[in-house]
Design goal:
This protein has 3 domains: 71 residues, Rossmann fold, CATH 3.40.50; 147 residues, ATP-grasp fold, B domain (D-amino Acid Aminotransferase, Chain A, domain 1), CATH 3.30.470.20; 69 residues, ATP-grasp fold, A domain (Dna Ligase, domain 1), CATH 3.30.1490. It is built from 13 helices and 10 strands. Its cofactor is Mg(2+); Mn(2+).
């Protein structure tokens, strides 16, 4: 019952349909009191957790699957917890040599105790504008605000705290917004073509999941050098964070041509407007066969 429940259901249905068309026997199950009895009785060969948001990406459901001895698609629980935390993920990526916008994290309790006004003044003095304020955990751009005017910063903090008790505040980077998906199959690790995202405003929840507000260029409008650089950054993030089978890295290609790591997603969206399937199709992949190859890699 996360904020991203609807997107999770849509992703699950889309992948189930694709796998069935690829000749696999698939059943869907919600995360409820009947899940563990169903796993015990049905003993599936594999579970594909298509859950976006807290329990789907923070490692907890994957912990349970390991606890009951069921294999699954995707990153393990410990690595998922690292990637789920944006500040920790950014720190790991930076240690691996990736560029990432400078940032601070602010727990809501500390923000109040120190005095909101003084903290906001310090943020503006350190980073200037524009800033990006977001929950330190979470997806689908929920609670994320691009702040260009100092008067909008208090509201941005409130919006971020509505989705978690810690906010991440980072320098906004000017450039092209890109998403690069990575897959792991029998032939190894591959980066799919980058997707370039152009919106009529912020790339928020509405822009992501309701057609019309966002224009996608797949593959992105990049030179060969730029395309190689962003693919290398996504592969480096995938390896540095210990991810498995599939991931999606969000980044900004700044005006100097440097890929700036923002975050990585261990459970990319698979809806009709999601970036992972768009990238796969642009790369000449048949979705049912691609998803089947990921399943086979997880079973191997």
């Amino acid at each position: 019952m996360s904020h991203e429940r609807d997107v999770s259901l849509r992703s699950g249905r889309r992948v189930a349909e694709a796998l069935r068309s690829a000749g696999l026997e698939v059943s869907l199950h919600d995360v409820d009191a009947d899940l563990l009895p169903a796993l015990a009785q049905g003993r599936p060969d594999l579970v594909w957790p298509l859950l976006h948001g807290a329990t789907g990406e923070d490692g907890s459901v994957r912990d349970i699957l390991e606890l009951v001895g069921v294999r699954y698609v995707g990153t393990g629980p410990r690595e998922s917890r690292v990637a789920w935390s944006k500040p920790i993920g950014k720190t790991v990526a930076a240690r691996a040599g990736l560029a990432t916008p400078d940032f601070v994290t602010l727990p809501q309790s500390l923000f109040r105790e120190l005095g909101a006004g003084r903290v906001l003044e310090s943020l503006l003095a350190r980073f200037g504008l524009p800033l990006v304020v977001k929950p330190s955990r979470g997806g689908s751009a929920l609670g994320v605000t691009l702040v260009r005017d100092a008067a909008d910063l208090p509201r941005a903090m409130v919006d971020a705290f509505a989705y978690g008790d810690t906010a991440l505040v980072e320098q906004a980077v000017e450039g092209r917004e890109l998403a690069v998906s990575v897959i792991e199959d029998a032939d190894g690790l591959h980066a799919l073509p980058a997707v370039e995202i152009v919106t009529d405003g912020p790339y928020d929840y509405d822009a992501r999941y309701n057609p019309g507000r966002t224009e996608y260029f797949t593959p992105a409008r990049l030179s060969r050098t730029e395309a190689d650089a962003v693919s290398a950054a996504a592969l480096a993030a995938h390896r540095a964070l210990g991810l498995r089978h599939l991931s999606r890295t969000d980044l900004i290609l700044d005006n100097a041509g440097v890929p700036q790591f923002l975050e990585v997603n261990v459970a990319p969206g698979m809806t009709e407007t999601s970036l992972f399937p768009q990238a796969a199709v642009a790369g000449g992949r048949d979705l049912p066969e691609l998803y089947r190859s990921i399943v086979m890699a997880a079973l191997a």
